[in-house]
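Sorry, I am new here, but would you mind making up a protein's amino acid sequence and the tokens describing how it folds?
***
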Amino acid sequence: MSQANTDLPRIDAPSRRLLVMEARALFEAADFVLRGPKTRKLPRGDGHPVMIVPGFGTNDRVTAPLRAALEKLGYAAHGWDCGTNLGMRTKLKNALALRLEQLHERYETPVSLIGWSLGGVFVREMARHQSALVRRVITLGSPFNGNPDANNMVTLFKIANRGKPVKTDVEGFLKRKKPPPVPCTAIYTRTDGIVAWPCSLEEKTPFTENVEVHGSHLGMVFNREVLRVIAERLALPPGT
């Protein structure tokens, strides 16, 4: 992408060292699953529905431990029920809109949305277009700000799209930078080896915040710091 033709800042993708360090996610996941999420000191939930959208190349099986922890805290936690995340398609966009409507109708209350990596980009757009159905948005290392090329995902996108060149939609990216009209918490780590961490930060508004944790990008759904932040935000009254 030519920087000269856009208003995007110059941000480099995470270094090779940080990318290699993503291997620690295996140990983070094993520790989270085997030793448990440790929810005893976390605030209890009010039973409202929460939907978790997985990151690129993953599915509901990967987010199952996090959903189990939220269920233990007292929330009605759900997956996205759309298989493996291989990027946005028109059919998927419609399915997500319907999924959100169904959860809202079932529980008769707004739904909190949690999106990991690319899933966070999706939930922000869901909240933008269906804000009346959404209580709050929490993103985990999601690439919605800064520069859309400042990540190490290009190769995976090419594989998912059968080797076709991946064209950066700069205009669409710039539109998505603005936060949706609901409370938004962006969780990020400076040692993210997949997405350059400045690209995971929300712009400052009265309804946005950025919270730093320690750990890897691939291990964010198995991170106890992340779980603590999620639990504290989900326990807040609507609109705060």
About this structure: DSSP finds eight helices and six strands in the chain. The first helix runs from residue 16 to 21.
